[in-house]
Write a structure and sequence with these properties.
- The protein is built from 9 helices and no strands.
- The chain is an all-alpha fold and 203 residues long.
- Helix 5 runs antiparallel to helix 7, helix 7 crosses helix 8 and helix 8 runs antiparallel to helix 9.
- The longest helix has 25 residues.
């Protein structure tokens, strides 16, 4: 009689292949760019057949979207980890900046090249679903800042301050990418701390 406990093995293998493909795509898209990375490069690095890729992703565009969503989830994980040490709204705001600094400190193949989401979005045409993923990520980050700031300021003040901090964050990530390390992110974190302290003191 067949052992029914063995039946889930095939889905697990497919899931493992999907993970290898996503990991390979993440390395190559970040290091070399989306446009410069072909399907053959990804499947070779992942150690899977091209058919396996298309069994898991409908197209390269679908793979790009999945990569961007995975990178968003990766950043959220870093933010939540930082948030566990937060003891105040101010700490929550700084956790956003610290999560970006943590992302910058990852061991990238060719060094840190800036925000992987923005890098990809710059290569994608208007209307590409990947750009919508990036936009939602940036809006969610600004929303997190608003939520923390609303514990310190009025709603209108919080929204204005969050936009200011988001601009600081994006400027810092661009400079950090150009310079190849996360030092600008740590500097931005310190500037954000002084900005928030000043807003609270002025009330």
């Amino acid at each position: 009689m067949p052992n029914t406990e063995d039946k889930p093995a095939k889905p697990r293998r497919r899931g493992a292949a999907r993970g290898r493909i996503l990991d390979a795509a993440a390395r190559r898209f970040y290091a070399d760019g989306v446009a410069a990375t072909g399907i053959d490069t990804i499947t070779a690095e992942a150690g899977v057949a091209k058919m396996s890729l298309y069994n898991n992703f409908a197209s390269k565009n679908d793979l790009v979207r999945a990569y961007l969503q995975a990178r968003h989830e990766e950043w959220l994980g870093l933010y939540r980890r930082r948030l566990t040490d937060a003891r105040s709204p101010r700490d929550g705001i700084l956790a956003v900046f610290e999560a970006y600094a943590d992302h910058a400190d990852h061991a990238y193949e060719h060094g840190f090249r800036g925000c992987g989401l923005l890098n990809a979005a710059a290569e994608l045409p208007n209307g590409h679903e990947g750009r919508a993923v990036v936009r939602r990520h940036k809006e969610e980050v600004e929303g997190l800042l608003v939520a923390h700031l609303q514990e310190l300021l009025t709603e209108r003040e919080a929204e204005a301050a969050a936009e200011h901090l988001a601009f600081l964050l994006e400027g810092a990530i661009v400079r950090a990418g150009l310079e190849g390390d996360g030092e600008r992110m740590r500097h931005a974190r310190d500037l954000a701390a002084r900005l928030v302290d000043g807003l609270v003191d002025d009330r």
